[in-house]
Amino acid sequence: MKKLNKLQINSERLMKNEELVTLRGGYGYAVCRNSNGEECGSGMIESCSQIHEFCDWLCNGNWNSSVCAGY
């Protein structure tokens, strides 16, 4: 256990990342569309800030719009 002046941090009681995601409301859902407006990929996403990399991966870089929901 570490002490910072009067604050004590018990490392055994720290929340894991998975517990924080559950507390926040779970994972989000992303949809990626190509230039024709067709869906080229979709799926669960951990954070909407990752949607550009997510759509690049799912659509092989050939996408121009995306939607992320669940946050």
Description:
The structure is a single chain. The chain has 71 residues and is of the alpha+beta class. The chain has a domain at 24-71. 23% of the residues lie in helices and 34% in strands. The protein has helices spanning 17-24, 51-58, and strands at residues 2-4, 7-9, 28-33, 39-45, 65-69. A hairpin with a 2-residue loop joins strand 1 and strand 2 (7-9). It is elongated, with a radius of gyration of 18 Å. The two termini are 34 Å apart.
Summarize the structure.
The protein has two helices and five strands, in the order ββαββαβ. The protein is α+β, with helices and mostly antiparallel strands.
Task: Give the key terms.
71 residues; alpha+beta; 3-stranded antiparallel β-sheet; two-stranded antiparallel sheet; 2 helices; elongated
Structural class based on helices, strands and sheet pairing? alpha+beta
What value does the average pLDDT take? 81
Helix content: 10-25%
Give the DSSP E fraction (strand runs of 2 or more residues).
25-35%
Major sheet characteristics: 3 strands, antiparallel
Low-confidence stretches: none
Q: What is the β-strand count?
A: 5
Round the Cα radius of gyration to an integer and report it: 18 Å
Shape: elongated
